Amino acid sequence: MTFTYGQVDIRNVATYTVADAARYLTIPRRTLGSWLHGRAYPTAGGTKYFEPLISLPDLDSSQLSFTNLVEAHVLRVIRQDHKVRLDKVRTALDYVEQKFGVPHPLARVQFQTDGVDLFVESVGKLINASRDGQLAMQKTLQHLLERIEWDEEGLAQRLFPLIQVQKADAPRVLVIDPRISFGRPVVINTGIPADVIIDRFRAGEDMESLADDYGFSRQQLEEVLRYELTLSKAA
Questions:
Q1: How far is CA 230 from CA 25, 35, 87, 199, 234, in A?
Q2: Of 179, 181, 172, which is closest to residue 220 (Cα–Cα)?
Q3: Do residues 218 and 228 make contact, with C-beta atoms less than 8 angstroms apart?
Q4: In this structure, are residues 122 and 91 in contact, taking their beta carbons and an 8 Å threshold?
Q5: In terms of domains, do 39 and 143 share one?
Q6: Are residues 205 and 171 in the same domain?
């Protein structure tokens, strides 16, 4: 199954609204919006501006591409778990992008193999992070990157979403693939959207019936319900 439609790589097509992307990644919508558009902030010397962390595919649209979704997945831990300031993240990203010489380095396999060390080292210098702090960030980033599948060219092709960053070793039950179901989260190896299953559960069908209908184990079904219910709370 190819990612190209004509001459266009569908991974770089504006597909996800900010609301949907925030829900799929369980990131606050306002937070994701600041990563996409930057944000003004007051200082003693006047108002300053954080540059965006993610470059959208269409300047006339606020929608994200699948590549942007992967970038936000990686940025989530840097901002939410390690509280690194936006301007410091932007500086570190510029450094990594310059080293690789490619756009969107967070969505490339080089970031997993080489970029994490570059990024963590750069952030550490910018914020005077302790060695222990840098190691903690490095470990969490590596866990997140393990939830990404890469193609032969080293580009992200599938994302296995998480509810909580701290549980990066959770089973891979759901996948986001831009080639399947318009990039919505689906159950692995089935193509069945998670929201279809949760709709049936909300309509009153019990877990045993759903597991039998779809051929799921109870663990698979529980993971799907847990994920989709979490998305609903974040909406």
A1: 10, 22, 30, 14, 6
A2: 172
A3: no
A4: yes
A5: yes
A6: yes
For the domain that residue 217 is a member of, what is the CATH number?
1.10.10.10
- Convert the pLDDT of each residue in 176-198 to its tens digit: 999 999 999 999 888 888 888 88
Structural domains counted in the chain: 2
The predicted pLDDT at position 169 comes to 66
Q: What is the pLDDT of residue 186?
A: 92
Domain region containing 198? 165-235
DSSP secondary structure, 89-101, as one string: HHHHHHHHHHHHT
pLDDT tens-digit readout, 16-71: 999 999 989 988 899 899 999 888 777 778 787 888 899 999 888 889 999 999 99
Phi, psi (deg, nearest 5) at residue 155: -105, 145
Domain co-membership, 101 together with 37: yes
To which H or E segment does residue 73 belong? helix 66-76
Instruction: Take residue 78 and report the two structure tokens written for it.
Output: 């840097």
Q: Do both 138 and 232 map to the same domain? A: no
Distances (CA, A) of 20 to 115, 130, 163, 200: 28, 36, 14, 21
- Report the run of H or E that residue 176 belongs to, with start and end: strand 174-176
Neighbours of 31 (CB within 10 A): 16
